[in-house]
Amino acid sequence: MNRGYAGFYKGHYLRSSYEYAYAKYLDFHLIPWGYEEEVFDLGYKKYKPDFFFYDDEKLIKIVEIKSRDKNVKDQATKALNAIVQKYNISCELISYEELLELYKSLPFSLNSTITEWINSKDTTVNKAAYGELNSHFNFKHSIDTKMKIGNHTKKLWASDSVSKQNMIEGLRKSGLVQKGKYKKPREVRMCKECSKPFEVIISSPKLYCSRNCSGIVAVRTAKFTNMECRSENHKAIKEFIIQWSLKNADLILDTPYNKIKTTLQPLIVDIHKKFRVKDFRVISKSVFGKDQGRKELLKFMKDVCNENVC
């Protein structure tokens, strides 16, 4: 679901690329919508759905956006059914499959929209928002809930479970020792991304002040790596075309410019098998840096053969 990619869209802090895709679908069809505007008490928990739709200020429909994870969808379905029964409000669950169907009516694809959101300067790679951006901001546990949490934690500490080891490891990483809460030595570092100072224990490998900054770096690194891979792939395709031309020199040199497609088709098939690329524009860009067309590619291949003959 790319839940890590959250950010602002039209004043709303959307928590996933799927939510952005659905919001963009609604805007394309000029459908008014609200986002996370109410919290519902379901009896067993409080729940804040994603999208709200009104008729004369009356809430008539709720749409929840979830990932393709079956357990997550089952839990959301249970919550939405509870809203329907308790509040008599129509509810709908939408995931990737439903979005694909909705996007069939749009002049742009779902994948391009998701990529647009990921690459947007307004998105981060935080797995969870903090402060007012968090959907549970200002929620307070009831006394009964606090007692359940406390009793559960005591049971974990009394056992020799993996959870206990994880809690101890968390304390260790935070710089606290279980007995006496003695703090390990700390130091102030400058964030490698935004240059903001932050405090951390001396032994920590942390280089960034927040997940937001580390996420920005991760996205930038991923983009750069992708560009490098693409460049290497283009070089490999160009070299493949040169070698293919030399192996089929007689065919290339004898091909007139009014019968290009027939000659180049076997080459395109071979490139697809080897590089999983069949878009001729990508093939042309690998040779010329831009789409020059089949005629220029054939001319390039003839030049390769003529130079080899000479």
Written account of the structure:
The protein is α+β, with helices and mostly antiparallel strands and 310 residues long. The protein is 52% helix and 14% strand. The chain has eleven helices and eleven strands. The protein has helices at residues 17-28, 70-87, 96-102, 110-119, 143-158, 162-174, 211-247, 249-254, 260-275, 280-288, 294-309, and strands spanning 6-9, 12-14, 34-35, 40-41, 46-47, 51-55, 58-65, 90-94, 123-124, 186-190, 197-201. The strands form four sheets. Strands 3-6-7-8 form a four-stranded mixed beta sheet. A three-stranded antiparallel beta sheet has the order 2-1-9. The longest helix has 37 residues, at 211-247. It is extended and about 85 Å long. The protein starts with 5 loop residues before the first strand and ends with a helix. The model has no long low-confidence stretch (mean pLDDT 84).
